[in-house]
Amino acid sequence: MKDILFYINQNRPLKYFNIVLLFFLLNGIAVKTNCRFDLSRDQINSITDSSEKVLSGLKEPIVVEAFISKEVPGELLSILLPIISQLEEIDRIGGDNVLLHIISPSSETELNLAKSRGIEGIPIEESSVDEIKQRMGYFGIYIQMGEKSSILNLVQDGRIIDDLEYRFLREIKKMTKKDNESRIGFVQTDGSLKTIRWQRQTDQGKDNLFGFRTLMERDLGLISDVILSEPVHPGIQILILAGLPELSPIEHYHLDQFIMRGGNLLLMLKGFDFQLEQTDPRLASLGLGSPGGGFATVPEENLKNMNLWLSHYGFSIRGEILFEPELAAAADDIQGQFIQKVPNPSWAVYLKKTGQIQDSIPSLSSVEQVILPWFSSIDVMKSKQNQVQYKTLIQTSPAALKRNASSLELRELAKIGTGPGDEIIQEELPVAVYAKGKFQSGFSQDSLPEEAKADEFRSGQAGGTESSIVIIGTPYMVSDVLLQNRTNAQIFQINLSFILNLIEAAYGDTDLIEARSKIRYLDTLAQTDKTFETLFSWFFILSIPLIIGIYGAFRIFQRNKRRGLPEGVLSE
Predict the structure, then answer these.
(1) Are residues 322 and 256 in the same domain?
(2) Which helix (H) or strand (E) holds 283?
(3) I need a surface site. Which of 255, 268, 284, 506 has the fewest CB within 10 A?
(4) What is the C-alpha to C-alpha distance for residues 47 and 561, in angstroms, rounded to an integer?
(5) pLDDT for res 528
């Protein structure tokens, strides 16, 4: 062996040949190995396990033609390169199930192909000192599976999308569905939030969920309106009820029997009410800010009636207004002549890494952030339902404050924690809870409403059926009020991802959870102690003159030393 090594070391051509051979072998291994690293904060440049789940289940291959113009300005190309990288990764994971073609249309044949696929060109301007050039750019993906086809546009609202993987997989899932029914119902009753189509700007308020419903239908299919004065249609599997609903006995009974037959509930309920004030005109003209909160109070009687039927299933909403001064979301406000980001403690930014989001069910495995606006906590009474498991999804921090009544105006909220009525809860309270199991009815044969059919009454869940109930202490996390400007729309998107994950998990479908959760999260304001701020400010005020003084004295000392003057004697 030593002789062989000696021979190789002495024979330089053989040595260089082996080095080159090793280089090509290592490159060949690297090509076949998935060794990409995504160092971005939100992991937006890579794909998730959702791609493998969806693509591995395809029964027939899909053709993907990505028309992406590469002859574009450098700043635009830098945004497009991660999309191209994700498509190549999807192609690698899909194997024989994905036939990918990435085309940068330049020839007449390629341009005609793009147009025939329904991909429209977008004018792109390039400016220089001498002239302004304009060319057409193509940014779209044509997807075909059997006789079905779909187009995925890469540009929305004038910018390149940053959730390609989720949108791509969503289109694949739609193609594999047999119908466009979601099997979801929106409960319409007194006190519930509505889904009214926007006719004017005032319709886009806090008590409307039209935007939420529209985007849900885009992702999951058509949604039905449900009136609880009649039994819930057998085709409905999930009911959504938001606001402070005032259920009559027969409405409660039909809701109860929906649970008994194995239905699932998503409850987004409120413990207080208030009216919104108008946005500052200076903010509105810049497309910033959102309507300020008015004075909030707890409607004691309505809350008592709601908790009466809610308690049968082990829940109640506390009549309180919660604030999170240390986890406050950032809001735009006019401070003097300038717009500044200020904390809004009535909107809480909850994170998994700080323990507020509990990784207790699969649908939360990839959720890192949720923002709760205008919220209350939940009491859980596990003894009410012995065959049901209750799990906390989101909980407050111990530093949260509560009030029974309060102004929700930003400048008033800046004083939170200084008033005599402010009470620190000193414990972690649940604000979102998940319950699953075999529920028992809130009725008995002796307490049925007059309109109910006694021979059809179910006192509990029979056989292997189970139901789930998710209850959240605010109905505003996907309210239309969040869609009034781009900043709040980011909050809406984060919360929409959270809600859709919960809904699909109720079907037993977790394919898209990782891809849907991979979104840009909200940057939070760093909260610092006032004493620390004061000391930090004075440190910089005094330290710079002190450093300059020390440096000057050192220079003078060095100069005097070179002249031979004794220490302590300063020359002019």
Answers:
(1) yes
(2) helix 281-284
(3) 284
(4) 66
(5) 45
